[in-house]
Amino acid sequence: MPDLSRRKTIALIGGGTILAATGGLATFAATRTPHAALAPWDAAGNYADPRMRALSYALLAPNPHNRQPWEAELTGTDGIAIWRDPARDLPVTDPHGRQLTIGMGCFLELCRMAAAEEGYATDTVLFPEGEDGPVARLTLTDGGTPDPLFAHVMARRSHKEAFDPRPVGPEASALAEHADLHLDGETRDALRTIAHDAWIAEVSTPAALKESIDLLRIGRAEIEANPDGIDLGGPMMEGLARVGLLTREAAMDLDNPGTRANVEATAEAILGAPGMVVQTTATNTRDDQIEVGRRWLRLNLAATGAGLALRPVSQALQEYPEMAVHHDAIHAIAAPDGGTVQMLGLLGYAEPTPRTPRWPLDTRMRA
Asked: Is the domain 37-156+355-364 a CATH 3.40.109.30 member?
């Protein structure tokens, strides 16, 4: 997806003049934060029912394109049913729902961890009615053991910018139980090259690019109206949008200077990443995909705890015709004996990433 670089856009166009044109710089800047879209972060844990408390943390989980594809229902006095909302599918870049199912795994693991923090165990049955039914049915019982990684939930982010070029230090060893780490050498370089080439292939495929562009949320009003997708907020982005320099039409035009700069910024970030992480499975069942989501969430939390930033780069793993050569290439390197490469990410040091918008919990609950 277009991981649009704010800094490149600002540097290219020149922010001060743009903002001056909007009038009232200080007032304008002070009112651009989408507080309503960020409120679910502060609401986490503030519910009477322990199931709602667990769900309020779970919805902060990482997920593809920030689609937040989950729906939940309270059942009985101790149960939760979790569905994947098909209205949030990504039919071009995730035609089989693999990536979105991984996102559901992230959600389920964070729900489990949040319940365990309060002493509840979570009995989980995956796909109890097949793929046409809920993804999982959960039952909360006494006996959960708090997970040390839960301490990093509120600081966890999916990084979106370039990394500090310094090599990753020994603190990364804490991540080895969650993924294969490639912190230097030929394999790391080959993975970076494939990820770079796959990124270029995605933005060069009109249908794939449009799927992302359609999910842009430009400015506070759009972000608060639809707090999912790819948010482009803040006074600079909104100032560019107000004077017509940041539009969906421009983002679809690869010859547009701003779009070209953003594509190049992401390409440079991939090639400059100090480390690469890979998660694979021997088979590719829905249960496998859920388990990978659990592992990715734990990897992300472990990276946060180690002072590292993690950025998913999923293009080479996508399953549409224009991506086939890159899909084959990464499997030849990362799964030469068979299996499925499920997740690929960049790892390194970086400045903290801001919170990303979320739908309020009540909007994700089934009646």
From this structure: yes
